[in-house]
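Reply to dn_fold:

You asked what the input looked like. This is it:
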Amino acid sequence: MCGIIGVVASGPVNQLLYDGLLVLQHRGQDAAGIVTEESSRFYMHKGSGLVRDVFRTRNMRNLQGNVGIGHVRYPTAGSAFNPAEAQPFYVNSPFGITLAHNGNLTNSEALKQEMFQTDLRHINTNSDSEVLLNVLAHELHDAMRSLGRFDSDAIFRAVAQVHRRCRGAYAVVAMISGFGLLAFRDPYGIRPLIVGRQTVGNTTEWLVASESVALDTLGFKLLRDVEPGEAVLIDPQGKFESRQCAKRTLHAPCLFEFVYLARPDSIIDGISVYESRLRMGERLAEKIRRVMPHSAIDVVIPIPDSSRPAAMQLAHVLGLPYREGFVKNRYIGRTFIMPGQSVRKRSVRQKLNTIAQEFSGKNVLLVDDSIVRGTTSREIVQMARESGARKVYFASAAPPVRFANVYGIDMPTRQELIASQRSDAEICAEIGADALIYQDLESLKAAVAASNPSISHFESSCFDGYYVTGDVTRAYLDGVESNRLVGGDAYDEESAQLDLNLVPASEESA
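and this is what came back:
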């Protein structure tokens, strides 16, 4: 999971990109980067850390131009981070091209071999985003040679070839020197990508981002989502073109985006994240009525933040008091993102503190968005008991997470997933709750799809083990887990940053 943004405006875009990345910060805390273009020259700054820490006034002044892209990074292949893998990436052949990517390629190793043996391109990092950039660059070169010209037809043809060669999940924003902003989405639409526009004088400005919240905060109006397999091209003057580039598509957005990843004020694929979480609460309440009809629940308490809408609606449906029992320290990173099990466990009590009077002498129902490793859930149940709770029931707005996610979410190995080899009763005992209630998968899908019934498929592999791209084998999953188990600690340099003024190859050779 990462956050991406691209802007074409009538004036400087550096502030727009910075502000957009700030509201996409929840999608990645590892690193941030921005590239802009002016007069066929790219200006780049990127580094490790939060957006506010990576960029200073001097960096912003150097980011010149009215076209640009930005990225916030969340690691998807283990906890180790190399600053060289901060995005956007850049290549200078056949044209200056820079790219930022959200998702994960499932055939990146095979593509690396093709790059080396056939395409004669060198991949310098372990990032699949660099692989994707080089595939795009190679296909742009081939399309230009095939057509005898370099125009929008060549660009869309190149994207079609990217779809043919690449597998997995990818939402992409890229810049091609002199041609403007290119954005495209994989044929399954697994990762979100949304287009907005606004009119300034006689000029239409465009913004492409991972979530609609970036459009809202920057004053752009939501136009639509980029369709699965579609590419959009916006030139520096604001001319908009789009084309379907994949031969076959199946719209299957990631279900976990709506459970946990996306901000509640976002709309993705025509679905309000907030409304979908309210409906998760409604359906979870219906299940509690069925399986726990005689339980004496005194109060419903959410685990902040993403479970709040579900918990609030669950309490309303059951006619129970809704209370805030936990106070969140917002200066601690999200435990799901943090590297290392011991660090994650220690951070729970740094991150949350109880309001004891909401627990003392009560039977409490705790509601969380999901249970992944179980470490956080176990600590939270213990905190509730230490604060005087008589009984602690635990409800998850999502089904058991039993399988790895390979499409851009840093899910743990199977042995780390608490539900991988355990029954619901065993999980309940493991986290120390008096009862445990999981959302049913079909109920979750129905809750999300209610806002947009045209979507009949979801990428739900972490719940059901079905991988929509059809290329994920047991051997592949074993390889992913092996890489995680031998991975090192996070990079220990506090602030590794990079500033570049990049002259595209097309200009150098002119």
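The two ends are 39 Å apart (CA to CA).
Hope that clears it up.
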